TrEMBL record:
Domain of life: Bacteria
Residues in the signal sequence: 1-24
Designated name of the protein: DUF3316 domain-containing protein
Keywords: Signal
Protein source organism: Vibrio agarilyticus
Upper taxonomic lineage: Bacteria, Pseudomonadati, Pseudomonadota, Gammaproteobacteria, Vibrionales
Alphabetized InterPro entries for the sequence: UCP028299 (IPR016879)
Pfam short name (any one): DUF3316
Length: 122
């Protein structure tokens, strides 16, 4: 009788574990990239300073704040899992119609997040 009770308890625990593993298995890690344009400025040095400020700003945001900037509603992202993997800035140089040369920082952000696996993606 005692042995039957232990076997029943073991089967119950195993079944509960398997169901929670299936639920936890409904997510995958996704890595993506986004390009963010900074303000147009009149010097290359100012554009790089602006780019550095952009990187520092994004690195100081928490996951939920990052998700507002980086993910869309269709990503099915876990908003508390968004994190920046890498960020780089380059500066574009433009000649405006009036002959002025202007500079714009462009930040490329690589980020990752947990996303829900929908049945149609499996």
């Amino acid at each position: 009788m005692k042995r039957l009770l232990n076997l029943k308890t073991l089967l119950t625990i195993t079944a509960a574990s398997l169901s929670s593993m299936a639920f936890a298995g409904g997510y995958q890690w996704t890595t993506d990239e986004k390009t963010i344009e900074g303000h147009v400025v009149s010097s290359k040095a100012a554009a790089y300073r602006e780019g550095l400020n952009m990187i520092m700003y994004f690195e100081n945001l928490d996951s939920r704040q990052l998700s507002r900037f980086l993910t869309s509603q269709t990503d099915e992202a876990d908003r508390s899992s968004v994190s920046i993997e890498d960020a780089t800035v380059f500066v574009d140089e433009y000649l405006k119609r009036n002959g002025d040369i202007v500079y714009q920082p462009i930040m490329n952000v690589s980020y990752s997040y947990r996303s829900l696996i929908s049945p149609d993606r499996q």
